[in-house]
Amino acid sequence: MALYAELHRHLGGSVVPRILWRYFHRSDAELAQRFPEYNSFEDFYTRPRNTLDEYLELHTLVESVQTSETLPYFIYRLIRGAYIFENLAYLELRYTPYLRTPEHLSQSQRIDLMREIVEIVGKASQLQDCPTVASQILCMHSRLPYEVNRAIIDLAVEKREYVCAIDIAGGDAHYRDRLDDIIQLYEYARSRGLNTTGHLYETPDGCYPELLPYLMRIGHGIQIPLLHPELLPEVARRGQCLEVCPTTYLKTGTLTDLHQLKVVFDRCFEAGVDVAICTDNAGLHNVRLPFEYENLLTLDVIGFEELQACQEASFRHAFAWPYRDRPASLLNGLLKTETSPALAASS
Prior knowledge:
alpha/beta, TIM Barrel, four-stranded parallel beta sheet, 8 strands, metal-binding, A_deaminase_dom, Ado/ade_deaminase, EC 3.5.4.4
């Protein structure tokens, strides 16, 4: 029975090392020669980096092979693994469609091809044997031109059957010089009725209070409780949820120890701010969502009641979950209904 919701997972970082390495050796001679042995590749792919920018460079390795031809291959394995090994009932996949189009084409040609990418991802995510509800979040990018980012918003509006929200990615330290443009893009997205999230307050260099009013959820957001707890009452008033991805902060050098997240959770719970626990890049981390839960519990960062509250928040803040209740509630109701006659007969 699938029980969990994943609100923050990148398509580029979701491919587990073994599947990516096998693809190289079956289909890409250059990359296969670069990584002849699996163990050395896994070590390269999953080891911690010193900064967020260094960490994000790994996405380019995967983006280069996630083309219109290969995306169904990767997504089938992604959804199958999420359903079987992670018990995911709901999954939001985020990515920048422009970065899955051929680099040699003109900007206008690449913009036109983004529609095909979204349709391929949408159709490939619908597996009969793995009934996880999947939707897409399209990421604007801090290093893409304004025209491309606006086209991403227009595509999200056009493809609502596949797309549930928009995001901004590319390293939060790079927003400063383009803040006016980013605000304008979010204003436009909200005017078109789109749901919004955004990579914000992930690192100390990514603290932009000007962007907060435009977001329905906050991608990461851990620096709010860590460095700017005075903002928490306003975050609670807006009903915003933090998408906290524990392992990411170790891999990017943002935190040195997961115990540091205890302050994040404690201050959020005290202020009435919802937190969803996510993986961000499950493949890059070699860590699946249930292990994120287990790590936080084992380290006493949260308790079981807090974990349950976070799991409930994930479904409550899911942009495209089609049901009123989370799966655990539905299962509990079903089991009670089925056992009641037997209990009555035995009494």
